[in-house]
Amino acid sequence: MIKLEYTDESTFITEEVEFSNEQYELIKSLHDQFDYKNTTPIIVGKNKTSLIFGVNLTDRSKDRVGYEIGNSMYRVVVEKI
């Protein structure tokens, strides 16, 4: 089991949430497939059962404005069903 911290945005109370090694390794492998400059850190979802990260697929060298405003920004969610 992997323990990650979740902080409630309304109360700022932080708690540890456990995730299976399988779920964490899955999102970590997806996260590592993208250039680190185009991804956000892996975070615990609000429901405390999902792991989330963002990825921006806009080519910064070709469309800086599109990159900055997130024209091709996607959320990747891994949740056990």
Notes on the protein architecture:
Helices cover 22% and strands 35% of the residues. The mean pLDDT is 91. It is built from 2 helices and 5 strands, in the order ββαββαβ. The chain has helices spanning 21-32, 64-69, and strands at residues 2-7, 14-19, 43-44, 50-56, 73-79. β3 and β4 form a beta hairpin.
Q: Give a count of the beta strands, DSSP E runs of length 2 or more.
A: 5
N-to-C order of helices and strands: EEHEEHE
In whole angstroms, the N-to-C terminal distance is 17 Å
Regions with little confidence, pLDDT below 50 for 5+ residues: none
Widest sheet, order of strands: 3-4-5
Outline the biggest β-sheet.
3 strands, antiparallel
Integer-rounded radius of gyration: 14 Å
Core attributes:
single chain; 81 residues; alpha+beta; 3-stranded antiparallel β-sheet; 2 helices; 5 strands; globular
List the topology elements.
Layout: E1 2-7, E2 14-19, H1 21-32, E3 43-44, E4 50-56, H2 64-69, E5 73-79
In short:
This protein has 81 residues and is an alpha+beta fold.
